[in-house]
Design brief:
Layout (H helix, E strand, L loop, with lengths): L1 H31 L5 E5 L2 E8 L4 E5 L6 H5 L2 H5 L4 E5 L17 H14 L5 E6 L1 H12 L4 E7 L12 H7 L3 H11 L3 H12 L8 H5 L1 H4 L2 H21 L10 E6 L11 H4 L7 E5 L6 H4 L1 H13 L12
Parallel strand pairs: 3-4, 3-5, 5-6, 6-7, 7-8
Antiparallel strand pairs: 1-2, 2-4
Length: 322
Amino acid sequence: MKIALFLSLLVALGVAALLWRAARNEAQARRNWPPGGRMCAVNGRMLHLQITGEGPPIVLIHGASGNLRDMTFRLAPALAEHFTVIAVDRPGFGHSEPLPRCANGLREQVVVLRDALRKLGYDRVFLLGQSYGGAVALKWALEHPDSVLGMLLVSAPSNVWSGGLDPLYRINANPVTGPLLRLWVAAFPPERLVRATIRSVFAPEPVPAGYPEHLGIGLTLRRTTQRVNAAQVAGLKDEIRAMVPHYREIEIPVEAVHGTRDQIVPAEIHTEKLAHQIRGIDLTFLDGVGHMPHNTHTDKVLAAALRLAARRPQAETGPGDG
């Protein structure tokens, strides 16, 4: 009896120590990478946006496991020479508050992002979505086409793939093992594993100097962000399966950029099929390029954005679009 009581006390102390360490690391991450833009209250949640440049408005939607800092590393400064660039932290990432657990899918994210932009006076915008952010852009274009001037998809998942979740995602999305994994990761950040993961995302290209530090690894390892990210990735295939039959309804100008060596979201499974699904889409394939062309071949993504802007119907070029 005494041994059991002692062991229970030991476990409780261990958990308390993990909780304290995780909370300390998360607070330190917020101090190390504070909000770089403005906070907008929308639908009972605070959303973080960073707005730069002048010109037609273009919204940058980041992918899984990231935040708007991925988009401001190289892409946002390049686009700001030609556009009003609105980089957003999707709900639950960076400094944006998460949505309720039961309402965390593509549709709910689109509603919050669109309402925030309308509150700031941007009623009609261009969309640029990278990776998971491309799926958000597709959902936005399907459900609220009148608010979209055009869409640029970068390394975006758009079609159903074979296989299941990565083992770590399965563990993280599990209601029993997920909280334990997230607590341990937040308390003892696996920096080597994170940097190895970043290298695999950029492969076969090298990670640009300064990128991990700019991204703010500590922000991505917070428990809430891990939970939101795992849930979204776990549900993505089914959400995409439901969208595919409706791609033929998209009538706005669409550009897509994809690396031929992308091992995270293979071009042949996703973007190549869009040529037969979205009328008038303009595809750009980058030979030998991986999953992150917005940070490794920023000029190519910028060129696609400029083509997209040029494709906007002349009747829509007047004031009031943003």
